[in-house]
Specification:
Layout lengths: L1 E7 L12 E7 L5 E3 L7 H10 L3 E5 L4 E2 L3 E2 L4 H10 L4 E5 L11 H11 L4 E2 L10
Helix pairs in contact: 2-3
Amino acid sequence: DAIIRQVPALHGTYIPCGNAMGVLFEAKDEKTFYLAGDTIWYEEVAATIEKFRPEVIALNACAAETLENGRLIMGDEDVWNVSLAAPDARLYITHMDNVAHASITRHAMRGRLASRGVVNYDMPADGESIVY
C-alpha cells in the first residue's frame, strides 16, 4: 500500500508567488520521501517533518528570488534548518545552477553548508541519479 499526501508549501518570503505544495510519499518497505516543492523554510515545513519523519527530503534550494516576491525557494539557511529538524534524514538538494533567478550556485551552496556543519545531503550533478 502506498500513500501520497499533499502538504503545505510557501513560495515567497514577501508575497507568495502563486500556489505551491509539497508531496509526501509513503509505501511499505520504502523510505518515506518528502518532496518539499517550491517552498521556503517555515512552520508548515517544520510541522510536516515533525509529523511524518521522512527519511529522504528533496529541497529546491538555489535561493531563487524576485523583487516582488522575495526568495521563492530555499537557500543555505533553510537547508540548515531542515537538517536540524531532520538530522537522520538524507537531504537531496535540487535546482542548482539551472534556474535563471537563482542566487546561490552549487559551489557556493557547498561552502555555505560546510560552514554551517551540514553534511547529511547529496547535491547531484546535472543528469546524475542517486538511489536511496
